[in-house]
Amino acid sequence: MNVRGGALASIIAAAFMLIMVATGAGVIAAPILASAASNPDPPAQPQPAPPHKHRHLPTPAPTPMALPPEVKAKVPAYKPGPIPFHDGEQLIYQASWVGIPAAQARLEFHKRPKDPSRWIGEIWIETNPFADVFYKMRDYVRESMAGDTLHTSGVYLVQHEKSRLNYYDVTVDRPAQMVTITKKNHKGTQSKEFIASDPWGPISGAMMALTQNFAPGKTYAFDVFSGSQRYVFAFEVEKRERIHLSLGDFDAWRIVPDVWYVSDGEMRSQVHGTVLWISADKRHLPLRIEAQAFIGHVRADLIKIDGKDGVESAQK
After folding, report:
1. Among 121, 118, 117, which Cα is nearest to 107's?
2. From the CB of residue 281, how many other CB atoms can be counted at a distance below 10 Å?
3. How many Cβ atoms sit within 10 Å of the Cβ of residue 35?
4. SS3 breakdown of the chain: % helix, strand, coil, rounded to 5?
5. Which of 60, 63, 202, 236 could disulfide-pair with 226, CB 3.0 to 4.6 Å?
6. How many CA atoms lie less than 13 Å away from 54 in the CB half-sphere?
7. Helix (H) or strand (E) segment spanning residue 230
8. CA-to-CA distance for 208 and 230, rounded, in angstroms?
């Protein structure tokens, strides 16, 4: 599987929370990074030194980018239902590749202490010592959302993968229908602007999706901004089935994600072979995500819920 950790992280972030959550991730990147661990990047070839130094030119001004009309027409607007999480709740996921533990992800939801009308969602992703040998990852995502509409005000991401360290700030101006993504690293600062009438972050989009009423044949689509890219994720509810986790047996919705659009145009095919399972109760807990890899498969399971009656409610 020729994967790009940062972009697939965004898909898993969105997918996990639906998810998710995504969105991929840059939010929950654990299962895909495990597949990346099975196929590390080849060593870079030495490059000849340039004959002379080049002066760095200033970063060109960003040009606002809009969705293609045919894609925008397929993305509806949503109203939130009951929020599936409570203040301070945590979800812990364990990711494995062909049964070998490779990474862990922790999701936390809490109200902002100085403004309880807003939700804060946070995700921490960390590979274990086994996976560190091939693809070390220490990623973090934080997003602020309005408590009534779940509209995001912005996303902050730290992408620390192998020797790369990038910081992303996604600012959302809904009245102006403008989203700005700023990337910072040792090379400097870059910015992109996008025109968006209904923008979501990976966590806010996933939470909105989880508040909807699921039924076989339904498809949900969201315009999501995460990391350096813009994605339109679609999630089709296939059927209801029983699955087994270490936490117990659960009735779950089987959901197949797809990517209808990505701003860099290189990722649509890489989500195929991925399936999500969401608990078929009012909580809509993300239980499992599974994807095909070049050898075997990668899987991330919910292994712990820090919430009152969380497991018992989902099992019923």
Report:
1. 121
2. 16
3. 25
4. 15, 45, 35
5. 202
6. 6
7. strand 229-245
8. 18
Phi, psi dihedrals of residue 300, rounded to the nearest 5°: -130, 125
On the CB side of 8, CA atoms within 13 Å amount to: 20
Closest CA to 121 of 58, 179, 43, 202: 202
- Tell me: the pLDDT tens digits for 130-147? 888 888 889 999 999 999
Which amino acid, 252? A
SS3 state of residue 209: helix
Residues 96, 15, 8: CA angle, nearest 5 degrees? 70
Q: How many C-beta atoms lie closer than 10 Å to residue 294's C-beta? A: 10
Mean per-residue pLDDT of the chain: 78
- For residues 198 and 185, the answer to whether their CB atoms sit within 8 Å is no
Say which residues have a Cβ less than 8 Å from residue 132's Cβ, sequence separation at least 6. none
Q: Quick check: 245 and 260 in contact, CB under 8 A?
A: no
Q: Work out the number of other CB atoms within 10 angstroms of the CB of residue 171.
A: 17
**N-to-C CA span, the chain:** 37
CA–CA gap between residue 226 and residue 27 (Å, rounded): 9
Of 162, 176, 169, nearest to 143 by C-alpha is 169
CA–CA separation, 81 vs 149, rounded Å? 9
- The single-letter code of the amino acid at 128 is N
Helix (H, G, I), strand (E, B) or coil at 287: strand
Q: What is the pLDDT of residues 20-46, one digit of tens each?
A: 333 333 333 333 333 333 333 333 444
Cα separation, 140 vs 122, in Å, equals 7
Q: How many CB atoms lie within 10 A of CB 315?
A: 14
